[in-house]
Amino acid sequence: MQVVYHNITDLTHLKWTLSRHSSGTAGSFLKSYEQADGIKYYYKLSNFDTVRGIFGHECINEIVAQNIAAALKIPHLEYDLIYADVEIDHKQYRTWLTRSADFKMAGEHKLAFETYYEINKNPDEDVWAFIVRNRLEQYFYHIFILDYLICNRDRHGANIEVLEKKGMYRMAPVFDNGLSLMFSCYHDGMAMECFDRRKDGPVNNFVGTMSLSENPGKKG
Question: Are 78 and 134 in contact (CB under 8 A)?
């Protein structure tokens, strides 16, 4: 169940690493993790650069996206929303961020779907044929529908994961939906007002096309 922590949480002990935008826009996402009470937690900030500090609303997008996924009964990673103090390069910031628990079960290993496909595909087998052969259509239809509804621009091959344990495989819950909705409208009311809510693409999809509206109607 999603939890929103309104009280200020001290997370200044966390160490942050950069995850560059795959879309080529300015700035970086910062991620961190810690082990607490036997659970590995992952933290994610919205956009960051050394001039503006922490800005944007990708963490809120994650919450909106997971609420839509929950309403549609699409298996998804659950994020908590936390108001916290963090420290980056010896400078403190107060911001909203998301926290999620590790979705791997004991003994499981994760693999990017892009890598899983490259290792296991038949010669000259395209991605969709591979998905059909492995009976994964329903999982990807769920992704197509969710990404269409939230205008997700960044479902690349590492934003879909496969979990493996002793030769048994399962698909990870849908995760990493921050580059969606109006993520590019940073502190700009006019940009939000002018945003094309019917925008279709181009998007960075590993499966399907660069068109969000074409993918839900994909035929095998």
Answer: no
Distances 37 to 2, 6, 40 between C-alpha atoms, Å:
19, 22, 8
Nearest-angstrom CA–CA distance, 108 and 111:
10
Q: Residue 134 has which token pair?
A: 């492995």
Report the C-alpha gap between 14 and 87 in whole angstroms.
Answer: 7
Q: What's the CA gap between 101 and 43, in Å, rounded? A: 9
Query: Which neighbouring-strand residues pair with 28?
Result: 20, 48
Pairing assessment for the beta strands 91-101 and 39-49 based on DSSP bridges? antiparallel
For residues 156 and 69, give the distance between their C-alpha atoms in angstroms, rounded to a whole number. Answer: 19
Query: Domain boundary at 101, 132, 165, which?
Result: 101
Q: Three-class SS of residue 219?
A: coil
Cross-strand partners of 161: 112
Domain of residue 64 covers 4-101
Containing 130, the helix (H) or strand (E) segment is helix 127-133
Cis bond upstream, residue 75 (ω within 30): no
Residues 142 and 171 in one domain: yes
pLDDT tens by residue, the chain, 220 residues: 566 777 999 999 999 986 544 433 345 789 999 999 899 999 999 989 888 899 988 999 999 999 999 999 999 999 999 999 999 989 999 999 999 999 999 999 999 999 999 999 999 999 999 999 999 999 999 999 999 999 999 999 999 999 999 999 999 999 999 999 888 787 667 777 888 777 787 899 999 899 998 887 655 4
